[in-house]
Amino acid sequence: MDFFTIKDLENISGIKAHTIRIWEQRYEFLKPNRTDTNIRCYTNEDLKRVLNIALLNKYGFKISHIDKMNEGEREEKIRSLSDQKAQYERVVNDLVKYMIDVNEGMVEKILEDHIQQIGVEQTITKVIFPFMEKIGILWVTNHINPAQEHLVSNLIRQKLIVGIDKVESEVKVNKSVILFLPEGEFHELGLLFVCYLLKRKGIYPIYLGTNMPLKDVQYLVNFKKPDYIYSHLTSVGKNFSLDKFIADITKQITSTPIIISGFLTSGYEKELPQQIQLKKSLGEVMEFLAGL
Fold first, then answer.
1. Which of 93, 126, 160 is the last residue of a domain?
2. In the beta sheet, which residues pair with residue 40?
3. 215 and 85 both lie in a single domain
4. I need a surface site. Which of 8, 165, 193, 286 has the fewest CB within 10 A?
């Protein structure tokens, strides 16, 4: 798809829809088209522009000042931001833009440059994981073509697998974790990231991969006796229900602690079985892993 709703822009940029409407009324940089039913619709270029404007505004530039800049001047101001966090946010926005443009060469260059500069783990935590969260939003809202997502995801997957193969830990922790994705879930980048961090910590990861029936997971749990089971949900099939998944997995696997993270957990507020823990952000994932 080549258009976004105002809610999509809010989710991806972090700017409230109400604020975006005010920007449209007062300034010239954002003029959305309208559908036949008079609903705002935004193009790929609008999304890229809002990402740039949101970043500049977050780090001290007034909207009235940004409005007077052309696209080149905005890009120049963004690259001149001195705050390290701002630079990582810029890189994540660049990855989103290059993914939309299907420019895999620039995506790979960004990843390679950062791996050389700050290492695999920091690249994963500072760049890849935040980028994956935005990919998840685009995928769930049906605003990313599968070819775009697969192209970029495969590049990231290659980097993660190389990192997993190379990582070594100075200590060994006498714990194991089964990692899997349920049937209908094929987006394994988040799970690979957790696999990397577990191995880095000296914990034995038992990686089952994507699209795993629960009965097969149950078999391995009974055979391997892991300390934890871990799943990361980014975007599953239309008929997937997190409620049903939680009910089914706790019915089949009754004693092993189960950790679930990913975009689909972010808005879940229902009471959980004691066996289940949801990790709704990167910070919560890192805190859990640090405590193992």
1. 160
2. 34
3. no
4. 165
One domain for residues 146 and 20: yes
Instruction: Give the structural domain span for 261.
Output: 169-290
Residues 146 and 196 in one domain: no
Among 160, 180, 214, residue at a domain's last position: 160
Residue 245 has pLDDT above 90, yes or no: yes
**pTM for this entry:** 0.70
